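User: What would this chain look like folded?
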Amino acid sequence: MQASTITRKLAGTTAGTTNDLAHIDIGYRARLVAFTLSIAALANYANGDVTRTQVSVASVGSLGTNDAQGVLAEAGINCLITTSGMSQLAANIAQSGLGIILPAGTRVYLHTLCVGNQSTAVGALLFLEPF
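Assistant: Here's the prediction, encoded as C-alpha cells.
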C-alpha cells in the first residue's frame, strides 16, 4: 500500500530580511518527497536588489553561509536594472524525488534575505509522506 502524501504550506510577506517569517510543526515522522518554492518581489530602487528564501529546520536563516546545517531548500532572484525604477521579479522552482526524513515534532522554518528596497512574498509547499 502506498502512503498518502500530505501537503503543508509556508507563506509570508516582508520588506526586509526575516528569520522565521513562517513556520510549521510536523507532528508525525515523515519523508519529505518534494517541494515547491515561489518568490515574487517588487524592487523599487536600482541594480543589485536581491531576494532569497530558505526552508530550513534551523530557527535562524543561514542564507549566504557556507556549509550551513539544516537547509532543506533555497532559491533567489536578483534585480538587474542599470538605472533607478520599478521592476517586478518572480521565480518558481520545484524538486521531486527526495527522501529526506523528518522526525516527529520537527519545526520547519521559512526565512528571507532582502537587499535593497523591496516588497517580497515568498511561499513553499512541502510534500510529506508519513511513515
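Residues 12 and 122 are 6 Å apart (CA to CA). If you want, I can go into more detail on any region.
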